[in-house]
Design a protein that fits this description.
Helix content is about 40%, strand content about 15%. It is of the alpha+beta class. Among the domains are: about 50 residues, 2-Layer Sandwich (Double Stranded RNA Binding Domain), CATH 3.30.160.60; about 55 residues, 2-Layer Sandwich (Double Stranded RNA Binding Domain).
């Protein structure tokens, strides 16, 4: 009989069929502790393996080794149809779909099919309007990272004398375009060094903080040329102007209903996503979530963890946003004012909820696609949808 080269205790679970190492975040189980450690990086975002050529980072050593083939031009996988070669087997399989026409990834909203899962995920943002990739130089936002990378080239500055390329953010110089592109990613990190002294909200750019401060100062530099109502942000003025023009540029691709505000469309889309997948389940109460971060926050209810203490009265909170709201009980500040009735609120979310009370008579109420019942507030709309869908948490 062949002996197991591993330690008996380590390989016991693999021979017995048991998976003794469980991820507390998503409940996935593994035979070996090393596999669990490797898996945990998918939750933490840790990427300890860095390419010495282009500085790209990876969560697994194997992925780095596969990536290195790009630089050494090793392409062992050949397409039998057009003889094009690839460094990775997965890339060959994806390429073969261009020959056989296979499109296995389907959009649940518009039923369009895609060859790659990543392309589907990017496409979904055309329905939600989400633009998560922001240029750190000019703050322009994009739905896809590839579009952002292409845009970043517009900020490259060439030095005619030494033919060096300079980063327009920090002026560091590079000899090759690919090194500069790799460096530019360092400016895309989610760092928020600019903090509001009134409500402690943080921002990644000083310009965003300046715009936010108008909430506290009451400054409204953007007047409407029709009714002379003033706004603190140019975007708010543009949205308001649609009340005069009747423009509704945000259209639902499923039922073709149109909205004047992007947020109304996003909320409306939940009516078409009643059966949306929620893969992250709480092992204690079985409540399901669409995002891993929401599950982690929820778990604090069960374990009693409250990592955010108040520096004034030492009361602790499970969420940072709850602490920020609590701080206003010490300062008695209500910085968020309704522009319609002048009522003030201590938290931005309370103001947003209140604003829907001014939309009760509007034809943009949130209508249930199942029973046609209408609601003026998205929270009531979401609660109602659960009645039809049986979802435990439809609106996140």
């Amino acid at each position: 009989m062949k002996l197991c080269p591993d330690e008996p205790k380590k390989c016991l679970s693999s021979h017995s069929g048991r998976k003794e190492f469980q991820c507390l975040a998503c409940n996935k189980k593994f035979h070996h502790k090393a596999h669990l450690v490797m898996h945990l990086r998918s939750h933490t975002g840790e990427k300890p393996f860095e390419c010495s050529t282009c500085s790209k980072k990876f969560s697994q050593r194997g992925n780095l080794q596969t990536h290195l083939k790009i630089h050494i031009e090793e392409e062992p996988f050949e397409c039998t149809v057009c003889h094009m070669r690839f460094s990775q087997k997965g890339n060959l399989q994806t390429h073969l779909r261009t020959h056989n026409g296979e499109k296995p990834f389907k959009c649940k909203l518009c039923h369009k099919y895609f060859r790659q899962k990543g392309t589907l995920q990017t496409h979904l943002r055309t329905h939600t309007g989400e633009k998560p990739f922001e240029c750190s130089v000019c703050f322009k936002k994009f739905t896809a990272e590839t579009n952002l990378r292409s845009h970043l080239r517009s900020h490259l500055r060439s030095h005619s004398a030494g033919k060096f390329l300079a980063c327009t953010v920090c002026n560091e110089e590079f000899k090759h375009d690919r090194f500069l592109r790799a460096h530019l990613r360092s400016h895309l990190a989610d760092v928020k060094p600019f903090e509001c002294s009134a409500c402690n909200k943080k921002f990644s750019h000083q310009a965003h903080l300046r715009t936010h401060l108008r909430i506290h100062t009451g400054e409204k530099p953007f007047p409407c040329t029709v009714c002379y109502k003033k706004f603190s942000q140019k975007g708010s003025l543009q949205i308001h102007f649609r009340t005069h023009t009747g423009d509704r540029p945000f259209k639902c691709t499923e039922c073709h209903k149109q909205f004047s505000h992007e947020q109304y469309l996003k909320i409306h889309l939940y009516s078409h996503l009643a059966a949306a997948d929620k893969p992250f389940e709480c092992s204690v109460c079985n409540k399901k979530f669409s995002q891993q971060a929401n599950l982690r926050t929820h778990l604090r209810i069960h374990n009693g963890e409250k990592p955010f203490p108040c520096t004034v009265c030492y009361k602790k909170f499970s969420q940072k946003v709850s602490l920020q709201i609590h701080y206003r009980t010490h300062s008695e500040g209500k910085p968020y004012k309704c522009t319609e009735c002048r009522k003030q609120f201590s938290h931005e979310q309370y103001l947003k909820t209140h604003l829907y009370s001014h939309l009760a008579a509007a034809d943009e109420a949130f209508e249930c696609s199942v029973c046609n019942k209408k609601f003026s507030q998205p929270s009531n709309f979401c609660t109602h949808l659960r009645m039809h869908a049986g979802e435990k948490e439809l609106c996140v």
